[in-house]
Structure formats: structure tokens, C-alpha cells
Design brief:
By secondary structure, the protein is α/β, with parallel strands linked by helices. The protein has one domain. The protein has a ten-stranded mixed sheet. Strand 8 and strand 9 form a beta hairpin. The longest helix is centred in the N-terminal third of the chain and has 18 residues. The radius of gyration is 22 Å and the shape is globular. The chain starts with 7 loop residues before the first strand and ends with a helix.
Length: about 400
């Protein structure tokens, strides 16, 4: 199995049924053994109908209902069987992203069960078996230009692939940079459908995996929203907005300010003019101590992680306790991927019902990339604060230039 650019892929940015078909081409070369090939990855053991019923049951059953554990087991198995396709697609993403930007940060994660529940609740017609981002990986590149180059690379591969397998129609439905979400979210999502010629891996054929491609500015914004949501208890990301209007508007405006700097489309409902954006931001910041709150939270978490990282560590189980202000980081080697998944399921069960605790299993190149990929778990908002200060300070520069003229 190879993770180079020769992989035959097909791209879709349109709908769940128009996803990239990812298929390995036949090769005359003798394949070199790779670590993930010898592992006993989880496989689906329930029908799609049973999986969908379990997803609905999570929303209907109370936390103390004894039958809830059975439904959780079904959901956890469905989530776990995305791990192998996710690993393959992440490795290809890592190779491509690093060729474009050596400083690119690439990470992967299986979707948190609370996040699965929120998405199902926000989308009543969605079936769990059709959720596109249970397995997800992300590339954060330094500039918006590099983002465009990486996405173009995938589209070029699609153009060269067999037309008989492609279902991509060129739609930009998942281009949230060209078309930002009303809350300010900006990124590009590519939906893949895994496909393998290997009989042993055919059980994963059809599994959907999502790739997110975003710039550093977009990443700082998105992770700051995650931090604010956790520490304020406000539903800043949910479709059912249960949050302060000033907080919601602040993040929409800061996203537009970043978009203006990147010369991209601003957020719907916000000004197109950069000066107007900055002026409104100043008004919000004058009456609501948002920046002070972000600063107060910054680096307040006590890190409970192994101080002596070992070679080969690739998976990390993060447990953030917002109330206790602690972050636990448990590393696992790349050969312990299945063990890490079991630890993840156990940790989620232990923290269920506690809104102050967030648990996630992630994979990055090494521990040094962990903080860059997930600053929200480290409660590191400094990069976002600095970027906002740069934008809000621009109004003073504009006024000074006008006075000189």
C-alpha cells in the first residue's frame, strides 16, 4: 500500500452520495510492509439500520437509562471502524501538504461522541450511517495560497483518474472559504469514500472520511471559538444559537477581518469594508470584555502529560477538565492504535454527562505538533489574540494615514 501522489482518487464536494472514491491502483512493485497493515483494526458488526437506530437512541435515552450502554457500544463500533480508512487518507494528506508547505500541521481524529449527538440533534433528518465526518483529518497551512494549491492538487488527481469511478461534479458546496458560514467558520471540506482492491480491506469500502484544509488564520479562529464555547458554556457552534449576541457577532466580525486580510469573501451579514468591520469590533470590545476573557483563559491549564516523549508515539488521548483546569495527555505508539481507541471509548464513558470535560483521541506527527493542531485543548488563545490585535490596530493606522494626506 502506498501513500504517494500516485494514489488514484476521485473528488467530491457536493453531497454524501458524491464523495471521493479512493482506490489503490495495481502495481508491479513488491509492496513494502507498513505498520498499519498488520494490525487488527475494528470492523463494522452492525447493520446500517441498527447504527441509525443507535444514533437516534442517544438523543432519546437519559444518561441513567441502563439500555443506553448498549446503544453507545453500537455507536462506538461504527466510529472505530473509520480508523483504518482515516489512517490511509491522512498519510496521503500529510505527504501532499508537506510538499506544498514544510510547516504544515496535519492531524486526524475520530469525532467525539458528544459532537456526534449535537450534529444529529441539529440535523433531525441526518442518519448516523451517513454522517460524513466521523473520521476526519485536517491540514493547516501557513497561507491561503498554499490552501488553494493543496486543494488544486486533489482536483488535478481527480481529473487524471478513471472517469468511470468519479462522481465529483465540481460543486463548491463545501468550500466555506469562498462561501463562509454565517457564524464565521471558514475552511474547505473534501469528502472521500474509501475504496480498496484488497479483499482484506474491502470491509471498509464506502466509508466516508472528511479532509479539512484551512489556513493558519482560519485555524486560530476556529480553535478560539472552541475554547470560548467550553469556558463560557455558550452554544457558539450549534445551529440552535444559545449564546450572547456580542460573542456571536465578535467571532463573525473577526472572521471577516481575517478574510479581508486574505483577500477572500467576508462572512454573510458583516460589512465588506475592512474599516467598518474594525470599527464595529471596537464597539463590541468596548462594551463586552471578550478579549480580556480570552486572555484570562490563556495558558491557565495545568498540563498532566508524560514529560519524556518516546520515539514512535503517534496517538494521543486528551482529556481537558475546564473546571479543574487540567489537561491529561496519554500517548500511544503507532502500533497501539487499537488500544488507544479502546482507551478513548472508556474515557468518554467515564466523562459522559460532564460538560466541563472534553475527551478526544487524535493523531499527529509528534508531540511537538500537538499544541499547534489543538491549541483549544491547551487553552492557548494567544495566537488568536495577537491576530485580532493586529486587525483592530489597523483602524488607527488608517486614521494616521488620512491625517498625513
Amino acid at each position: 500500500m502506498s501513500t504517494n501522489d500516485g494514489l488514484d482518487m476521485e473528488l467530491s464536494c457536493a453531497s454524501p452520495d458524491q464523495a471521493i472514491s479512493w482506490q489503490e491502483p495495481p502495481s508491479n512493485k513488491v509492496p513494502q510492509p507498513l505498520w498499519w497493515e498488520s494490525m487488527a483494526w475494528a470492523a463494522r458488526i452492525h447493520s446500517k439500520g441498527r447504527i441509525d437506530r443507535a444514533g437516534r437512541a442517544l438523543l432519546e435515552l437519559s444518561p441513567d437509562d441502563p439500555s443506553r450502554d448498549e446503544e453507545i457500544a453500537v455507536v462506538d463500533n461504527w466510529r472505530s471502524c473509520h480508523a483504518y480508512p482515516l489512517q490511509i487518507i491522512k498519510m496521503n494528506l500529510l505527504s501532499r501538504a508537506k510538499k506544498i508547505d514544510p510547516d504544515a500541521v496535519v492531524a486526524q481524529r475520530l469525532k467525539r461522541r458528544p459532537s456526534i449527538e449535537i450534529k444529529l440533534r441539529d440535523n433531525p433528518n441526518m442518519k448516523l450511517s451517513q454522517m460524513q465526518d466521523i473520521g476526519g483529518c485536517r491540514a493547516v497551512l501557513t497561507t491561503i495560497g498554499q490552501v488553494a494549491r493543496l486543494v488544486s492538487k486533489y482536483k488535478e488527481s481527480h481529473a487524471k483518474s478513471s472517469k468511470g469511478r468519479s462522481s465529483w461534479d465540481g460543486s463548491d458546496d463545501f468550500d466555506y472559504i469562498a462561501h463562509p458560514k454565517p457564524d464565521g467558520y471558514r475552511s474547505i471540506h473534501l469528502i472521500f469514500r474509501y475504496q480498496s482492491l484488497s479483499p482484506e480491506r474491502a470491509i471498509y469500502n464506502g466509508q466516508r472520511i472528511e479532509i479539512q484544509v484551512r489556513s493558519k488564520l482560519q485555524h486560530l479562529w476556529a480553535t478560539a471559538v472552541e475554547t470560548a464555547q467550553l469556558f463560557t458554556g455558550q452554544a457558539l457552534k450549534s445551529k440552535v444559537k444559545n449564546a450572547s449576541e456580542d460573542w456571536l457577532r465578535f467571532f463573525a466580525l473577526t472572521s471577516s477581518a481575517f478574510a479581508s486580510r486574505e483577500k477572500m469573501a467576508t462572512v454573510p451579514g458583516t460589512p465588506d469594508d475592512a474599516e467598518e468591520i474594525i470599527r464595529e469590533l471596537h464597539q463590541i470590545m468596548a462594551r463586552t470584555p471578550i478579549m480580556q476573557s480570552l486572555s484570562d483563559w490563556n495558558d491557565t491549564v495545568h498540563l498532566l502529560e508524560i514529560e519524556d516523549p518516546q520515539p514512535g508515539e503517534q496517538f494521543y488521548l486528551l482529556v481537558l477538565d475546564a473546571e479543574g483546569r487540567t489537561l491529561s495527555v496519554e500517548p500511544f505508539s503507532k502500533e497501539e492504535a487499537v488500544k488507544a481507541q479502546r482507551a478513548y471509548d472508556k474515557a468518554e464513558k467515564e466523562t459522559e454527562g460532564n460538560p466541563n470535560k472534553q475527551t478526544v483521541l487524535v493523531s499527529v506527527e509528534d508531540v511537538n505538533a500537538l499544541r499547534k493542531a489543538y491549541p483549544n485543548y491547551y487553552v492557548d488563545t494567544q495566537g488568536f489574540i495577537t491576530a485580532v490585535q493586529r486587525e483592530t490596530g489597523a483602524l488607527k493606522l488608517i486614521k494616521r494615514r488620512r491625517k498625513r494626506i
